[in-house]
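User: Please run a holo structure prediction.
Assistant: Happy to. Please share the sequence and the ligand.
User: Here you go; the ligand is fe (ii) ion.
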Amino acid sequence: FVPPSPLVPPSPRSRTPELCSTIDRSQVQTSPSASGRGGSSSDQQGNAPIDVCIENLGKRLKGGPGTLSRDEVETVDAALRQIIDHVESSGMAEQNEGSKGDDNNDLRTAILEMDGQRVSSLIESGAEMSESDSELAFWAVVKEVDRCEEDDLPLPGDVPVVLHHIFDADLRHLLTREKQTTNVTCMQPDEAVGIESKAKRLNYIMDDGCHKDLPLAEGRRCEGGECCDKCSRNIFPTFATDVECNLEKFPELSSLTFNNLGKVRTSTILMFVRLIERVRRTIAQEYGLPLSLVLPLQAYSRKYVAGTTQKGGGGGEGDFVILHTDEATHSGYHYSCVLYLSTQGEDFEGGNFVFNDPVDEGDKSADIYDEDNSDGADMSLADAIRLVGRKLTPFHPTKGVIFSSGWENMHEVETITSGTRYAVPCFFTTCPVPDAAYDQMVQGKPKTNEDVADDWLHLLLAHREESPVESVGRVKELLMKWHYMCAPLTSHN
Ligand SMILES: O=C(O)CCC(=O)C(=O)O
Ligand SMILES: [Fe+2]
């Protein structure tokens, strides 16, 4: 099978209109070949491309995702590519950065030499890893891991140190990108007594179609964890770059589980962990939780194929996901995320991710099934039963959505009508790991960077064939040690 290639034009992200205005506009021309996508509408309209680009960026900032037509996106894309080329070729970025440029050269040298201590001291004294530095560092780590494997050497402590700086930089970069947050009231099942409530709770357990009818009460349930009392939905149109999710570059991303890493290349394993760690840090930041308290419980690639039926529970191929609540699937799931590896409208059609909420009392116009509403009258009976009294908030899967896992965030995936859709659902808990669990491990909590490197090797990067029992034990240890592996020694407790 040929993995779909993400073809979305890079989004403006940190390329701000201010940057556009610092360069000589006369030098920036839209050439159709620059984007490889042919002429843009700006050519046809006869406008100066840079002005059209700024205008379109303004429109996008005001109106949010989906505001721009494909032609407008292409105009922005083509102009931005020109600007980036121009800035890079004239060395302008380096000049503007002044002495920081020297620091960054030192930083890049230290990264390429895999000198973790030097990277740390440069960063402590003010050097910053840019997006291109973190890419450089990522590939330097991949090379180092592969070299050690080839030469049968232990992994040096510098490897996790450099990885921690990449993770720090990733979050810093993400915080400058677009995020759309909707706050919602935390919800949990209402434990009310009474025959009617009991009957509804039983229906909810027995019949997936009755999920929406479960009586709810305000507040978080969060068994055993320390979730914050703020529930929300956060959409990140540029949570990851196209390159980071590229299935040609990281082919095994399309079917990855931590349980089966024996034949997965180092770069894919590291990119997967990097993305999950970015999610973990974003959750800690968004919900004001200590990072050590947020641990992944599950993360895997999920493939949806149009026209197929899901075999077995969770994760099996299929073409939709029924309305559900993640915390109902597992009481330890407190925060959820879905990352998208393929693009709606290019790799597949349909397949919206949809938040599905009860209609507020008195807001009949939001009800999808309204008898006075002609659309409702055209609905099949099955859809009418499914949708009566509900308000749907679909979003076109872009790069990532992060939300609290409780009943305030019931959601579903609409049927994929054509193509293949790849997603990475991941679920995080705030349940603390009891200290006794580490005492039972062959190597308990890591104490030095070399110990941390050893855990990276044995729990993720060893490329070992293993039995199902071994892999279950390894993944359990990996998840329990996640924070110790992904955050510097100073943040261990
Ligand atoms: O693929 C998606 O968009 C959502 C998947 C999901 O909700 C889940 O796996 O729990
Ligand atoms: Fe879900």
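Residues 17-95 form one domain.
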